[in-house]
Structures are given as C-alpha cells and as structure tokens.
Amino acid sequence: MASVMLSGTQNLTLFTNRTPKGLGFTSSNLHSKTHPNLRFIAPITRTTLNCRTIVPKCSISSSRPTSQPRFIQHKKEAFWFYRFLSIVYDHIINPGHWTEDMRDDALEPADLNDRNMLVVDVGGGTGFTTLGIVKHVDAKNVTILDQSPHQLAKAKQKEPLKDCKIVEGDAEDLPFRTDYADRYVSAGSIEYWPDPQRGIKEAYRVLKLGGKACLIGPVHPTFWLSRFFADVWMLFPKEEEYIEWFEKAGFKNVELKRIGPKWYRGVRRHGLIMGCSVTGVKPASGDSPLQLGPKEEDVEKPVKPLVFLTRFALGVLAAAWFVLVPIYMWLKDQVVPKGQPI
C-alpha cells in the first residue's frame, strides 16, 4: 500500500512498506489528469493542490535502461562539467534549484538526531548539503565524498566544514567498510550515476544495521520540451523508480517526500533538479542482498575527443534550459495571483 501525505504546498510524502507493483504516478506533475487505474480517497489535508491518498491498482513499467543516452552520462564528462561549474555553483545554480529551506526540509526525514552519529555525504560537492548536516551532527563525524576535486576545494573553504573529512571517490564504489555509517546522505548526485541501482546498493552496504539512507534528487518532467532536455542530458528518475531501486537494494520503510522551490507552488511538470527526498532503513547487517553484474561505465576507457566535446556542448545547452526554468517559474509566481495555479 502507498499513502500520500502533504506538508505545505510543495512537499509530498509517499510511504511504502513493501515492493510496489505500482505507485500510481504516471508523471511527476501534481496538476496532471487522474489516472483511470487509480482509486482516490478523500483529501487528508487542506491544500490548493487538492492532494489525495492514492491506492495503486496497476503495475508500473520496469525502470528505464541505465544505458539510455545522456549527453553528460559518464563520470569523466561530469568531472569536466563541474571543473567549470564549481566556480559559480553556489551562486548561480543553488539559488534556483536547491535553497536552504529546501535543503532543511529534504534532510528532515534523515533523522539526524544525534551529534555523534557517523554520516557520509556522497556526491557532497561544494558542501552546500553538508552545511545542513552539520547543524545536527558534529563536523568531525561527517565525511564529504565527491569525484570532483574542484567541488571539494570549495567545500574545504567553508568554515563550518573545516573538521569534516574530505574524500575523493566514486558513489558506485564507496571507500568505506561495510556497516560503517549511521546515516548516508546524497543530494544532487544520482543524476550523474551511470547505474543508480549500484549506487543505492552501495548506500545499503556502508550503513550499519538500522542506519538510514537519504537520497535527494531530480524528478522526471512531463512538459515535452523539459522532458526532451532532461532525457538527453542526465538521469531524471520517475518517483516510482526511486522506490523500486531502494527496495531492490534491500531497504525497508521506504519513504519519498516531494520538495521544490516555494515559487513553483507545487508545479512539477518541468521536472526539478532537486525534487524529492527518498529515505530507507537498513534491516540487516552486511551487504545488500541484490546481486549485480559489472559496472555500466569503465572510467579508464579512452574517450574520443570530438565525441566528448560534442556531448559536452550539447549537455551545456540542456543545462542552460534548466537554469532558465526556475527564472520562468519565479516570474510566473510574481505575476499570477496567489491561490491560483501556475
């Protein structure tokens, strides 16, 4: 069973305690039409979005192949993308997609309730998410991991993070022992993983018994142009895919909470680079029960320069679109009267 609870106009939580045959979402758009195979129950709270409890009655399609073409798909390409983006990341990208109130809201389900717990922030980048973590956990107990030394250099410059451990590493092959951490956090990283299931399996492995993973990432657009740019650029998972990956890895008590900038007023048709916070609890010690084959991407494999530059340029074009979308939504929020859908 899956149930939906709303907290504010843009925050939605999905709860599930078993492997879903379908979560009932055909899109991530709160204004989409009712799916004919879903049964709706009375609203559980007052909201302009008229959110309702949803009981799924249909099967979801299997996850999209991890080999789906993306312009910035390979870790090597993402490395160079962030080599330049790190310069303006905190000042240009975060204000439109990943604000402080969104960060605090997204981290709330992680239950960072003990200053002595060990936390790994995977794909921590410039440390923006880590700043939210160290509000609740002593910095000396937090490890920031990222493949980009340029991003990590920005994190090192932040005074509240000076006692954090800084590690260069791969989210799909974490340099931590099994049953190591109390909490696993990853924000804005999954979209660059060639194999998201492998990354979530690693999250399970490094957690202690009863530890909790919190993965914050994008959601798939339904508007055709946003969907085009998302699908050819990087991974924008559907909400049910997050749930599926967590439960296949072995996590229990899986929850998905919708997040988004206030000025979107809950609109999700353009997708969100930070659109949901997914959590799950590790029910048993040891590695994940899920068995996987070799990695999707060999980072040692040589890349053809012309192909690399072409993909990189097209990826930058797609990225520019998602810089413009929050500006467009902010302008609509200023123009359209409050209380009306935008």
UniProtKB/TrEMBL annotation:
UniProt record, GO biological process: methylation
Regions crossing the membrane: 312-331
SAM motif III as annotated region, ranges: 205-218
Record region (SAM motif I): 119-128
Keywords: Membrane, Methyltransferase, S-adenosyl-L-methionine, Transferase, Transmembrane, Transmembrane helix
Transit peptide in keyword set: no
Region (SAM motif II): 164-177
GO molecular function: 2-methyl-6-phytyl-1,4-benzoquinone methyltransferase activity
UniProt cross-references to PROSITE patterns, sorted A to Z: SAM_MPBQ_MSBQ_MT
InterPro entries: Methyltransf_11 (IPR013216), MPBQ/MSBQ_MT (IPR044649), SAM-dependent_MTases_sf (IPR029063), SAM_MPBQ_MSBQ_MT (IPR031164)
Pfam family, one: Methyltransf_11
Chain ranges of the MPBQ/MBSQ family SAM-binding methyltransferase profile domain: 70-279
UniProt family annotation: Belongs to the class I-like SAM-binding methyltransferase superfamily. MPBQ/MBSQ MT family.
Name of the featured protein: MPBQ/MBSQ family SAM-binding methyltransferase profile domain-containing protein
The organism's taxonomic lineage, starting at the top: Eukaryota, Viridiplantae, Streptophyta, Embryophyta, Tracheophyta
